[in-house]
Amino acid sequence: MPASNIRLRAVLGASLLAISAALPAMAFAADTTTDVEELVVTARKRDEALIDVPFSVNAMSETKMRASGAVNLEDISRNIAGFTVQNLGPGQSQVAIRGISAGQLARDQPGVKEQVGVYLDESVVSLSLFTPDLDLFDLSRIEVLRGPQGTLFGSGSLSGTVRYITNQPQLGELSGSVEGTGSFVTHGGRGADLKGAINIPIGDQVALRVVAYGSQFPGFIDAVQPDGSINEDVNDGTRTGFRIAAKIQATDNLTITPRYLQQNVSVNGFNRVDRFNILGNPYTTTRPKVSLGNLNQYTQLEEKFSDKFKLADLTVALDLGGMTLTSISSYTDRDVLVVRDATALTGSITGGSIGLGANVYTLDAPLYDTTGVKLFTQEVRLASNNAEKLDWVVGAFYSDMDRDYAQYLDVAGFSKLTGIPTKGARAPTDALYYSTVPYTLKQSAVFGEATLHVNDRLDVTAGLRLARYEEKRKLTFDGIFADVTIDYPGNVKADDSAPRVIVAYKATDNLTINGQISKGFRLGGVNDPLNKPLCNAADLATFTPLAKPSFENEQVWNYEAGMKAKIPGGSFTAAAFVSDIENLQATVDAGSCSSRIIVNVPKARSMGLEAEFNKQLTENFDVSLSASWNNSELRSSVRDSSGAVLQSLRDGNRLPTVPKFQGAAAVGYVRPMENGLTAFSNLSVQYVGDRFTQISDRESNPRTVSLFNIGAPSVSSLNFQLKLPAYTQVNFRVGVRSEDWEAAFFVNNLTDEKAELAVDRERGLRARYGYLVSQPRTVGVTVRQSF
């Protein structure tokens, strides 16, 4: 453990004292009556009431998701303390919990692993940048487990775990629902959703649950073309999918649940607003001037994102009386395609660095990124059933992933116009950059956790996971932009452990105080080589020594104190934490090389407070509040060979992508009507503080950038703001419902706030500078029928 444990214990001790001092004022008497909804969760791989889980967990039911206007994981994150999702485009979200983030991942960093594990029930679905954008229909709830969850969930749950929990097939019950939504976006297009679910009993021992859905995403970004025309709403798209699950009660003790899920997402562009594009800007004097508006980007070819996701899993549970044996097998087959307009990036090299003419640097340059994943996982565990003195679980886990990643920059006509040969050992003619990176990742682990009920008031939990990993890659880079490397092997192995100790004390029947020490980790990996032909001399000298073949495991030790209380008509939870981070995997933009490398920062720290409050104020009104404060920063520096601090990796600088403060408030209203219907409404306000996209954005901000001589610009440099400003979004929903139907009118982003979610840049800001933005005001109607 880190040497600073004594000081950390003092911080947490002070937090506990502060919590205890506040208790009398909050009147948590032992005989307090309460109307708290006993929401059951499985955060510790066993059923227990949310209020009884002895660490920081939030769970949102499908009903609450609808009431808050949440349609995706990013929307959900704004309602949950300490939980953030950085939107990097459809199906490309980056999840962070408790301020632990190393910065924005790029699409061409396939070797970087996730810091937050994402699960669909018991099956792993997280994939670093490409966490699937799953539809929220027919979910029981979403669970957000804050803090390291490595003991039970392994690598990738470094700072927490997110779990989509679906509604399971129910024996002997015919039921279902259908839901339709129509909407339109201010400054944009129209959206539509049609979703349905049905539960079908087949005899007394089998039930089938089928869910199907289709969505039309409205576009709201207009793309200015080189000829001055405008393609409207280019970021529209579709999502279609279904899942089929069966519950087979083979015997009284044996339950078998097979499931198959398939989802296809196809989007025609990205939610990017360009502020500067090297080929289209107001500063050129020999090219047409282009002024980009609030929701404009500059492109000259169609961009695209598609994600074909398939998941098959099988859960088998055997009740052995005092214990249950559970087996979960899953297989994922996934294909992701990203087509980017890389004409600005390519033009900054061919025209800006090399000095070729406009007939060359304006050639269409689509960049194809393809990711293919085949993943098999197997978990077997044995757990106690409702033990009076000792609850326990032990198990083993294995996974085997094959991931094929490739990039192909196709600049048709380049060789013919320039006479420069481009065909390489693997790269075809006019492929200026070509790479294939197939790799395998195998993991195996054993784990166990037990909770001793010392007495009626005191519980002590201890757990440990021991894991082994091996990753093998074969690197091929070809083309005139690449440092040519053919079938170069890369290999990294690691062993790691994830212990956890929790002490929970029930001060009264309605108040529990808990403390925790836990560890999480994520696997290191293999760095890609620098694109040396694109590097200038200074960047080559700076980054070559730093581009080590591999980077090490990242680890987090978490120290936490919290409380959970039932109050009349509701609940209040709070936690204080300190997380020591070792070998933070920081992304470094290698300047003119158009490369990114991962370097390990020896020490970083995240510390903060989070609280959530829910209460039924009257028969008609209820309120929900959540807030988190976070201070996450580097605790050591990284220096280059000259001794200079590398790209703001300086002791004391703030970690990126997460705000210092985030909060949400929601007020719900229900009123029974004389005709048997119930009127309802919900108003939610969500605030997200300022952030940075990368650690390097913290310094030299605004950033002064020298311009390439493309179009003879009238200025030699520009200043670019890199701090993402705070934003507030307001959602409103009003409607009527009966026992079996509901109709609602909603307005999401009522004030039409244009939230800047992440900086989008090419070639160190010199080719393109812009932002990924949130969806403008959206007005719609939803109708739901249940039976």
The count of helical stretches stands at: 8
Write down the Rg.
27 Å
Helical residues, percent: under 10%
What structural class is derived from the secondary structure elements? mainly beta
Strand percentage: over 45%
Question: What is the mean predicted local confidence, pLDDT?
Answer: 89
Task: Characterize the largest beta sheet: strand count, sense, and whether it forms a barrel.
Answer: 22 strands, antiparallel, barrel
Counted beta strands: 43
Q: Which ranges are low-confidence, i.e. pLDDT below 50, for 5 or more consecutive residues?
A: 1-37
Q: What is the rounded distance between the termini?
A: 55 Å
| General form | globular
Any overview of this molecule?
The protein has 787 residues and is mostly beta strands. 8% of the residues lie in helices and 54% in strands. The strands form nine sheets. It has a 22-stranded antiparallel barrel. The chain has a five-stranded mixed beta sheet with strand order 3-8-9-6-7. A hairpin with a 2-residue loop joins strand 6 and strand 7. The radius of gyration is 27 Å and the shape is globular. It starts with a helix and ends with a strand.
Draw up the topology in text:
Elements: H1 5-26, E1 40-41, E2 48-49, E3 57-61, H2 62-68, H3 73-77, E4 83-87, E5 93-97, E6 116-120, E7 123-124, E8 139-146, H4 150-153, E9 160-166, E10 175-185, E11 190-202, E12 206-217, E13 222-224, E14 230-231, E15 237-249, E16 254-267, E17 272-277, E18 296-298, E19 304-319, E20 323-341, H5 343-353, H6 358-361, E21 366-384, E22 390-410, H7 414-418, E23 431-453, E24 458-478, E25 485-508, E26 511-522, E27 525-526, H8 537-543, E28 550-551, E29 554-567, E30 570-589, E31 596-616, E32 621-634, E33 661-672, E34 678-688, E35 691-692, E36 703-706, E37 717-720, E38 723-724, E39 727-737, E40 741-748, E41 756-762, E42 768-773, E43 778-786
Parallel strand pairs: 6-9, 13-18
Antiparallel strand pairs: 1-2, 3-8, 4-5, 6-7, 8-9, 10-11, 10-43, 11-12, 12-15, 13-14, 15-16, 16-19, 17-42, 19-20, 20-21, 21-22, 22-23, 23-24, 24-25, 25-26, 26-29, 27-28, 29-30, 30-31, 31-32, 32-33, 33-34, 34-39, 35-38, 36-37, 39-40, 40-43, 41-42
